[in-house]
Structure formats: structure tokens, C-alpha cells
Structure prediction request, 568 residues.
Amino acid sequence: TSAEAQTASRIGFTPIAAQTDSTIHVPEGYSWQPVAKWGEKLFSDAGELSQQTGISVDSSDRVFGENTDGMEAFVVDGRQVIAVNHEYVNTRANLPQSGGEVTSADAVTTLQNMQGVTVMEVAEGPDGWNIVVDSDLNRRITQNTPMTLTGPAAGHPLLQTSADPAGTTVLGTMNNCGAGKTPWGTYLTCEENFNGYFGSTDENFERPEGYARYGIGLEGRYAYEKFDARFDISKNPNEPHRCGYIVEIDPSDPTSTPIKHTALGRFKHENAAAVLAPDGRVVVYMGDDERGEFLYKYVSHGVYTPGGPTSALLDDGQLYVAKFDTDQTGEWVALTPEATGMEAAEIAIFTRTAASAVGATTMDRPEWVAVNPIAVEAYCALTNNSRRGPEFTNAGGDPASAVPNSPNPRDANNYGQIVRWWPAEDDHASTNFTWDLYVMAGNPTVHDDLNKGSANVNAGNLFNSPDGMMFDSTGLLWIQTDGDDSNEDGFAGMGNNQMLAGNPVTGQIERFLTGPKGSEVTGLTWSADKRTMFVGIQHPAAPFPDGEGMLPRSSIIAVKRDDNQPVG
Ligand code: FEO
Ligand code: CA
Ligand code: CA
Ligand code: CA
Prediction:
């Protein structure tokens, strides 16, 4: 039989119907259970979660944080470790005593601690998967954890502050969205909407050049600026230049200092899909999730050799941005001083401006990139772009983003699409590629035009706003959604956010899992034996998962086959 027939047989589950309720659904023959929930103890000295007061400030960096997102699994000395992001906080859940109002420095510290990253050992026992409480590998990385800045922007005057005159040590990591894993077994966590943490106590503060393109305003979403001067741009105008990067964390060493790699550029990083080129250079694909921003890749100058030195591989390399042509070819344009008219450090700090200078293709919010492990191809979820056009609101954005283009063909794009590319010479380091749209989401039960979606969208697999994506080891593409779950009008028949499996060869897409109402499904990794799939459920509405009257809890769940066969 052909390769096509073999891959077509890989979707081995019975697809499920769309759902609108407050729990998880998986196919017949599969089961799920929670592994880690917001506020669960990583260390036995942490206090209990209270429905009235949440988690105390003293315990807030000793428990599993909120709003789980990207994650990766590692094996450390035979033990299974998950590193997972906590993207943002729901203030009503974390500060129930004040109805979500941020009224004190302790409230700010609590919120800062409930975000960042958890590194935790997990183990499977008779009652399923659980956190190994008090494991010496458990660690919380918060918005106050010291990190080292490296790469072309490290030490630049724009990265210097009164607390860090050298511009090389920054506290914490902000809005950690998607993730990635290096070939040498470290975790990559990606800073996305970092702009929202900053504000000004001086309403007349004149914002420096370079703030507008990143949306840095005068009022922070959590009022940090009122209680923590580091987030007050009128006092520390360079602090926002120290966020918006990719951070590397060693999950095997809880005493290690995380590294912010400025060579990978500063933007609203979604995830980091790392792969080796045939010659051993490290290639990292990265999306910038904002309307009209770009798709990037980084290629190291050095090569990776197992057991060899890795410290320069994410600091010394070339950043590229994607240009898609109308004839389904494309090129990666190098962001060099010659091409951009900017110095190397400026390219690392104001990467969006550098990419506009070379005429990169504006995209419909690039979310996760996933690289197929069994074919030389990569996929990027372009989640949606409902505000294209003259009313485009991203101040200082690229004017080209006002009109559709080949990989982003719809004027108002409420559904999203997935673009994929094949690098020339089967080499991810190559500067040329060909591309197509793997799927254009839509609703053929409602629309007759481009909004009906591509031919592989049908009444049985309706979805919108693809976001998280991971390939499993067999080459199936898992697609997670973060979209409109109203189940009405143009979204009728789509139900709650969900996870689907896609066959890259045939284009077949089938629904595997539905999340609880209000949640997005984001983050996916597997146990070492591939018999468990770990899936993230972010911002569920009550009563998930603890029942009526209880605070809603973002959670990681484990999905297994009832016959314990591999699930990816
Ligand atoms: Fe945090 Fe673009 O999703
Ligand atoms: Ca996302
Ligand atoms: Ca999203
Ligand atoms: Ca999210």
C-alpha cells in the first residue's frame, strides 16, 4: 500500500461530537483524569487552597500556578518531569477576598508567583498520575526569579536599569505562552503579551519610541505599577525592553539560572519549535502572535553534537523572517544590519521593526509552529484576524497588514488557517521553501464563500481558531483551539474548544477531545512510554473540575487508552 494509505490509517479513534458542557470528552476506549490543578501543592509546607481566600502569599510560589499553557516532558535520572507554563492569572480566582481587585503589594506578589513556570516530577501509581510532592526536582519560576540576559542585546543601554546597571540580569519571566524543547534536553518558555504588565503612575509620562509597536501603555492589566516600581514605566522605562524573549530552563537542575536569549528576537513569542538541520545547526521556528505580525526562524552558527558544548547555540546565530510569495514559494529573509539598517542589538530588541524593514509577510496572528518528526515540513497555526482593514488598531503596526495576502486570504478571518512549508533541499536551515494551506477552518454548514473553509472541513470536524499544535512521534498533527465557543451563528456546530488530530498526508482531521465550557485547550506532551497524553485546560469556567460552588481550576489532565496502548 502507498504511504498515503498507511498514514490515513493512523487516526485510530472514533471521532467525537461537538460538546457544550462543563467537562472533558474523549473517544470511546479512552479515559481522562486530572494530574495537576491550580493551587495544588508542589511542596508539603504550602497551605491549602481556600475557596474564600485562594492561596496565601506565602504559599503562592510553593504550589502549581494558574492557567497552564505550553509544556514539555523530560526524563531526569529515570524520573519523569514536566515543565509547564502559567501564562496569566484570573484575578477573581486568585484574589477572591477582594473580588479580583489588586489592592496591596501582597496581592501583586501572589499574582506574580502564580505565573511563570512549574517544573515538577510526576509519577503514575494505582490512582493514576500525580505530582511527586517534595521531589528535589520540583521548582517554581515566577515573575521574580533572577535570570541572565545573553545574546546581542545583553548589556545594551536600552536594557540597563537602576537595579541592573549592567543590563544582564532580569527578574522573572512574563506571560509564558507556548513552549519548546532543545535537542540537549532543556525547556524553552516563550514570553508573549509582556506589554500588559507595565503601567505608569505618572499619567503624563511620554512613552519612548519603540513602545507603540509592542502595545506598551500607561495602565497595566494587574496594576503592578502601583505597588512594584519595576513595572512603573515612568520610573523604569527600560524594563519592558527586558521582556518579550525566549527563556531557557534546565529541568534537571533546580538551582540553575534561567537564560533569556535575546538572539531569538523580541516579540510576542508564541512557542519555539526547535529542530536540527542535516549539518547539525539548530533551527528554531517562532510565531509572533499579534494581528499583522510575522513568522520567524533562528539558525545557529555552530552545530550541535550530542554531549558537546551548547552554551552558544542560542546566542550566536542568524534570525530570519518569512516572506510568502503568491506562487506558493517563499523565502527566509535574514535580519542583518545591512538589510535592516539597524545594529545587531537593535534587531534583537525591536525585531518587529527590523522585519517590517525587509518586507516580511504580515500574518493572521502566528501561534504555534510544529515540526513533523517523520517528514521535512513544518506547520504554523494562524489563529484568526477579525480586525483586518482600515480600522486596524495595532498602533505603529505594519501597514501591509491592512489587506489580505496569499497565506492569509480572507478579509475578515474569524476562523483561522494552518500554513505549512517544505524547506528546499529537505533542510530546515535553507532560505527557500514552498508552502500551502493545510487547512482553512470555516463553516460549510453556514457559508458558501471562502468562509466555508477548505475541502477537509466538514460538518463532523468543525472548529475555529487553531492555536496549540504538536506532532506525535508517529507523525500525526494534534491541533488545539482557542476560539469562539458560543456554538451560535457562524460558530454553530463547533461547540467548546477542542483538540483534533490531523493526517498531514491525506488532510483528514477528526475531533478527539472537547474541553469544558469557557476553556481553551493548550499544551500537549507525552509520558516517556507514550501511553499517556498530557493535555492542558486553560481558563475553564466553573464548575470545572471540582464541582458547583468551587473556584474554577486550570489543570493538566492525563488521557490514556483503556487498553493502555500508546497514544502518540
Ligand atoms: Fe498565549 Fe497566542 O496564545
Ligand atoms: Ca496560544
Ligand atoms: Ca490564542
Ligand atoms: Ca491563552
In short: The pocket of MU-OXO-diiron (ligand 1) is lined by residues 87, 177, 192, 270, 289, 367, 467 (CB under 6 Å). Residues 1-5 have pLDDT under 50 and may be disordered. The first strand starts at residue 30 and ends at 37.
